[in-house]
Design goal:
Chain B: Residues 217-388 form the MmgE/PrpD C-terminal domain. Chain B: It is found in: Mitochondrion. Chain B: This is Cis-aconitate decarboxylase. The structure holds 2 protein chains of 2 kinds. Chain A has 17 helices and 6 strands. Chain A is an alpha+beta fold. A 4-stranded mixed beta sheet of chain A has the order 4-3-5-6. Chain B has helices at residues 21-33, 47-59, 70-88, 103-119, 124-135, 150-169, 206-209, 222-239, 271-274, 278-288, 298-302, 304-311, 359-370, 376-387, 396-402, and strands spanning 9-11, 14-19, 250-256, 313-316, 330-336, 341-346. Chain B folds into 2 domains: 9-214, 2-methylcitrate dehydratase PrpD; 221-346, 2-Layer Sandwich (60s Ribosomal Protein L30, Chain: A). The longest helix of chain B is centred in the middle third of the chain and has 20 residues, at 150-169. By secondary structure, chain B is of the alpha+beta class. In chain B, a hairpin with a 2-residue loop joins β1 (9-11) and β2 (14-19). The chains are: A alpha+beta, B alpha+beta.
Chain lengths: 457, 414
C-alpha cells in the first residue's frame, strides 16, 4: 500500500527507539524537561492554576497522578495532565520553538501522569520516557513544517492547541507502546480535539490551551489503546474534506522518514528558546533592547530620570495580540511590548514580580507608558527567528539614545548556559519545594537515561 | 469509566452505572450521535445532542435542595439551540454541507456552554467567559466523519461546553470579545460577520422560523433524499414485474446527488462508512424497499446482493444540485437490461423541515429506539414528561426514567 503521510507518522512513532536519539537531542530535551518542571512548579502558585485544580478535584477517584507543587494531592491521569499543563503555561514562562509553539508543556504533563498510571511491572524507564518525550516534540515540529504560515507568530489558532494535542497523543502512544495502527488512530482522535482560537491569548484562558493539549492528547492515546478508530488519513491532504489541514489555509504534508539513518530529529538542528522572565517570547527582545538603552541613559544622565524623556519609541513587528498600550491584567501585561519595555526601563530588570497587580498599576510605570509610541519597520517580521526589538529614547534635550536587540539571551541562537538554566529552575522550584527535593529533581533529570522507573519523577 | 468518582449523573439506559456529570455528558452525547440518527438543522449542524446531554447531566449535579424545573430545562435547552443557530448565521459558508470543520464540534460546544451557563444561572460576565472558554475547546476536522470518532464530536461538545460553564462559574476568564473577533470564533470560518442578537421584548427565536429535520433511519441526512427516491423506484419496478424484483435485470444505477465528498463512498467497509454513503443507502433501499436501523448491521453491509448492486452504481453531480440541506434533491435512475429506465426523484423527504414527522411517527421512532433498553413505564414516562415539560416541577424525573428505573412512585412527581 502507498505510504500515506498519516501512516508514516504512525510508523515513526511506533518504530522510534532510544538509539535513535543523538547526544545533542538528548541533552537539549533534558534541559527542556527540567525547565518545564520548574515552570510548572512556580505556575502552581497562580490563580488560574487554583481554579483548574479546584475544578478537577470534583472528579477524581482513581487518583494516581501527581500535581505540581501540591504534595499529597493526586488526580486522575488526564486531569493531572490538564492541571499540570495549565501550571506550565500559566505565566507564559515555558519554552518556545521555531516554528512557533510551546512544545514541552503539551507533552511532559501527559507523560508524567501516564507513567504513574501504569502498573509497577510495566513502568517505563528513564530512557523510554526521554524517547517518548522526544517523539512528542518531533511530531509537533514536523506538523508545523507542513504550513508556511506556521513559521510566523500565529494569528488564527494557538499552535499549542493544534500541534500540541497531537504531540501529546504521539508521546503517550509511544510510552504506552501502542501498535502502529493504534498510533495512527491516536493521532486521528487527537485531531478532533485540537484547535483553540488566538483571541484567548492574553487572558486567563490561554493556559488552558496547553492544559487541554496535553490532557486531550493523553485521552486520545488511551481511547486508541482501547480500540477506538479514526480517519487513517487525518494528516493527509484530502480536498473537499479537511483533516488536520482544517487548521491552516495552506497545507502541504510530507511523509515522515522512518527513524534511523534517513531521519534526523528536528531538535538536533533547531534548539529551543528558554525564557528568562514570564512573558511572551516577543517581549524578550524588547526588554534586552530596553536594558541596553537604559544603561546608555544612566551613563548619559547619571541616573534613570524619566522626566528627561519625551518619547519612547518601540520598533517591533506587527502582531495584534502582543501590542497593548495599557494592559490591565497580569495576562495582558505578559503580552504587551509596551509594558515590558517600560518595566525594564524603570526597574533595570524584568522578573516574576514585575507582573503583580501592584507592579502593573504603578504610577511611574503608567507615566512611562504614556510616552510610548510604536513603529513597525518593514524589515521587522513577525517571526521568532527573524524579529528584532529596538527601543529609542527621545529626550527633551533633543538627544536620542537607542538600544537594539537581535538575539536575546535564552534564544536558540544564544542559549542559556547550564548555570543560568539551573538558576531559573532553582528560583522557580523554591516557591513550592524544599531544597533537597529541588536538587533531587535536577540530578534525576540529568541522569534520566539511567533511571529505572520514570514514575519517580 | 476509569475516572468515576462519587458523583452523580445518569448514563441513559443504564441503571447499574453512574458517572460524574462531565463524563455522563460525554458518553450520552456520544450515544446520541453514535448512529447518525439525531436531528439536523439549517444551517447545518446536529443541535440537540451536545446541549441535551450536557443539561441533563448537569441538572443531576445540583444539590438536593435546589430543584430544576422542567421549564428551567426547556429554557436552557432553547438557549443552547438558539446560540448555535445564531453563530451559524455569522458565516455564509455555514449554509452548505461542511467541508472543513464539523459544525457540532464548533457551534455545539458553544451551545452546550450557553445552555449550561443558563441552567447554572451565571451572571452576564460569567456567561461571556463561559463562551470565551468554550471557544478554546471548539472545532474538529471533518475528515473524522464516517469514522468512529464522529460521535465523539458531539460527546466532546457536550462535555467541553459543560466544563467551560463550570470553569466560568469558578471565576475563570477568557476574551470577552470572543465572538466579535476574527481570531476568536472567526478562526473557524473563512468569512465571518458576527452580529449582535436582537433585544426585543418578544425574542425572535430561530427555531420559530426554521424547524429541524428528524431522521427516519440512522444515516447522514443527505442519504435520506436518496432513500426516498430509491424506494419509489423500487415500487415502480416491482409493480411492473408482478411484485418481484430481479436484481440481475438491473444494468446500471445512477444517482444524481450534490457533490459531498464525505458521503461519496462506492464501497463502504464499516457501519460508519455505510451511514455516510449515497451509494450504500440507494442500493439498500432498492433491495429492501425501506431503510431502518437494521440496514446497517454487519451482515447487511456485507451481503453479496448489495455488493453486486453497488458495483453497478454511479454518481452524477448536476450543477444545479447545491450541497445545502435546504435545497438539495436526489434522483435515482435504474437502467434495465432490456433498455428501459425507471426513475424517481425526491426534493423533500418525510422528516425534513418542509415535511415534518407527525406526532405518531415521532413517538414511534422513540419507542422503537427505547425498546429493550428502557422498561415500558419509563418509556411512557419520558414521553409524558417531555410533552408536559413546562409543568414539571422537578426535572429529575426525566433522569430517573432515563436510568431505566420503573417505579410506581414517579407519577406523583409529574
Amino acid at each position: 500500500p502507498e505510504e500515506t503521510v498519516t501512516g508514516s507518522f504512525a510508523s515513526f512513532i511506533h518504530a522510534a527507539r532510544p538509539e535513535h536519539l543523538s547526544q545533542t537531542v538528548r541533552q537539549r530535551s533534558k534541559r527542556m524537561i527540567l525547565d518545564s518542571i520548574g515552570v510548572g512548579l512556580v505556575g502552581s502558585t497562580t490563580r488560574v492554576f487554583d481554579i483548574a485544580l479546584r475544578y478537577c478535584r470534583l472528579y477524581s477517584s482513581v487518583a494516581v497522578s501527581s500535581v505540581y507543587g501540591k504534595p499529597g494531592v493526586k488526580l486522575s491521569p488526564t486531569l493531572a495532565a490538564f492541571t499540570n499543563g495549565v501550571a506550565t503555561h500559566s505565566m507564559d514562562f515555558d519554552d518556545t520553538w521555531h516554528p512557533a509553539t510551546h512544545p514541552s508543556g503539551a507533552v511532559l504533563p501527559a507523560l508524567l501522569a501516564a507513567s504513574q498510571m501504569l502498573p509497577p511491572s510495566t513502568k517505563p524507564n528513564g530512557l523510554d520516557f526521554l524517547l517518548a518525550f522526544n517523539v512528542g516534540l518531533e511530531v509537533q515540529g514536523r506538523l508545523m513544517h507542513f504550513s508556511t504560515e506556521a513559521h510566523d507568530i500565529p494569528k488564527r489558532f494557538h499552535p499549542p492547541s493544534v500541534v500540541g494535542t497531537l504531540g501529546s497523543a504521539a508521546a503517550t502512544a509511544k510510552l504506552l507502546s501502542l501498535s502502529s495502527a493504534q498510533c495512527c488512530h491516536a493521532l486521528g482522535i487527537a485531531a478532533s480535539l485540537a484547535g483553540a482560537p488566538m483571541a484567548n491569548a492574553a487572558t486567563q484562558a490561554k493556559p488552558l490551551h496547553v492544559g487541554n493539549a496535553t490532557r486531550l492528547g493523553l485521552e486520545a492515546a488511551l481511547l486508541a489503546a482501547r480500540g477506538m478508530e479514526a480517519s487513517p488519513l487525518i494528516l493527509d491532504d484530502i480536498p473537499g474534506c479537511s483533516g488536520f489541514s482544517a487548521f491552516y489555509s495552506l497545507y502541504q504534508p510530507k511523509p515522515l522518514a522512518a527513524p534511523g539513518e534517513h531521519h534526523e530529529f528536528l531538535l538536533e538542528k533547531q534548539d529551543i528558546a528558554f525564557k528568562r522572565f514570564p512573558a511572551h517570547l516577543g517581549m524578550h527582545w524588547v526588554v534586552d533592547a530596553a536594558l541596553s538603552v537604559r544603561n546608555l541613559f544612566i551613563n548619559y544622565a547619571g541616573s534613570f530620570s524619566p522626566s528627561l524623556i519625551r518619547t519612547i519609541v518601540l520598533r517591533i513587528p506587527v502582531s495584534k495580540y502582543i501590542n497593548r498600550p495599557f494592559p490591565s491584567s497580569e495576562h495582558q501585561a505578559r503580552h504587551s511590548f509596551q509594558f515590558n519595555a517600560c518595566a525594564a526601563l524603570l526597574d533595570g530588570e524584568v522578573g516574576l514580580g514585575s507582573f503583580s497587580e501592584s507592579s502593573i498599576h504603578r504610577q511611574e510605570l503608567r507615566e512611562l507608558l504614556d510616552k510610548v509610541v510604536v513603529e513597525h519597520p518593514e524589515d521587522n517580521v513577525a517571526n521568532f527567528d527573524k524579529m528584532y526589538g529596538e527601543v529609542a529614547l527621545l529626550l527633551h534635550s533633543g538627544d536620542i539614545l537607542t538600544g537594539k536587540c537581535d538575539t536575546f539571551y535564552g534564544h536558540w541562537r544564544k542559549p542559556l548556559s547550564k548555570e543560568s538554566l539551573l538558576k531559573k529552575f532553582r528560583s522557580n522550584a523554591s516557591h513550592v519545594l524544599p531544597e533537597e527535593k529541588i536538587e533531587a529533581i535536577i540530578t534525576l533529570v540529568d541522569n534520566l537515561e539511567n533511571l529505572s522507573d520514570s514514575s519517580q519523577l | 469509566q476509569i475516572y468515576s468518582s462519587d458523583s452523580s449523573s445518569t448514563i441513559w439506559g443504564h441503571l447499574d452505572f453512574r458517572l460524574p456529570p462531565l463524563y455522563a455528558a460525554f458518553v450520552n452525547g456520544v450515544a446520541v450521535h453514535s448512529m447518525d440518527f439525531d436531528d439536523t438543522w439549517h444551517p447545518a449542524t446536529h443541535p440537540s445532542g451536545a446541549v441535551l446531554s450536557a443539561l441533563i447531566a448537569l441538572s443531576e449535579a445540583f444539590p438536593q435542595k435546589k430543584k430544576i424545573s422542567g421549564l428551567d430545562l426547556l429554557l436552557a435547552f432553547n438557549v443552547g439551540i438558539e446560540v448555535q443557530g445564531r453563530l451559524l448565521h455569522f458565516s455564509r459558508e455555514a449554509r452548505n454541507i461542511p467541508k472543513r470543520f464539523h459544525p457540532p464540534a464548533v457551534v455545539g460546544t458553544m451551545g452546550s456552554a450557553a445552555a449550561c451557563a443558563k441552567l447554572l444561572a451565571l451572571d452576564q460576565l460569567e456567561c461571556k467567559n463561559a463562551l470565551a472558554i468554550a471557544a478554546s475547546y471548539a472545532g474538529a476536522p471533518l475528515a473524522n466523519a464516517a469514522t468512529q470518532i464522529k460521535p465523539l464530536h458531539v460527546g466532546n461538545a457536550a462535555k467541553h461546553g459543560l466544563e467551560a460553564a463550570c470553569l466560568a462559574l469558578q471565576g475563570l476568564q477568557g476574551n470577552e470579545q470572543i465572538l466579535d473577533m476574527k481570531s476568536g470564533m472567526g478562526a473557524f470560518y473563512t468569512d465571518y460577520n458576527p452580529q449582535t442578537l436582537p433585544t426585543s421584548q418578544s425574542y425572535p427565536w430561530l427555531l420559530e422560523q426554521q424547524d429541524v429535520a428528524i431522521k427516519c433511519f440512522p444515516a447522514h441526512l443527505a442519504t435520506h433524499w436518496v432513500a426516498d427516491a430509491a424506494s419509489s423506484v423500487r415500487r415502480k419496478l416491482v409493480e411492473s414485474s408482478e411484485n418481484l424484483l430481479s436484481l440481475d435485470k438491473i444494468e446500471k444505477v445512477i444517482l444524481r446527488v450534490p457533490e459531498v465528498k464525505y458521503v461519496n463512498r462506492p464501497s463502504p467497509a464499516s457501519e460508519h462508512e455505510a451511514r455516510h454513503s449515497f451509494q450504500f443507502v440507494a442500493c439498500s433501499a432498492l433491495l429492501d424497499g425501506s431503510m431502518s436501523v437494521q440496514s446497517f448491521t454487519s451482515e447487511n453491509v456485507h451481503r453479496p446482493a448489495l455488493r453486486e448492486l453497488l458495483c453497478k452504481t454511479q454518481l452524477e453531480h448536476p450543477p444545479d444540485n447545491t450541497p445545502s440541506f435546504d435545497s438539495l434533491y436526489c434522483e435515482v435512475s435504474v437502467t434495465l437490461r432490456d433498455g428501459n429506465t425507471v426513475s424517481g426523484r425526491c426534493t423533500t423527504f418525510y422528516g425534513h423541515w418542509r415535511k415534518p414527522l407527525k406526532k405518531e411517527d415521532l413517538e414511534k421512532k422513540f419507542q422503537s429506539n427505547a425498546l429493550g433498553i428502557l422498561p415500558i413505564e419509563a418509556m411512557e414516562g419520558i414521553i409524558e414528561t417531555v410533552y408536559n415539560l413546562e409543568k414539571v416541577e422537578d426535572c429529575s424525573v426525566l433522569s430517573t426514567f432515563l436510568s431505566g428505573q420503573s417505579t410506581r412512585a414517579l407519577p406523583e412527581k409529574l
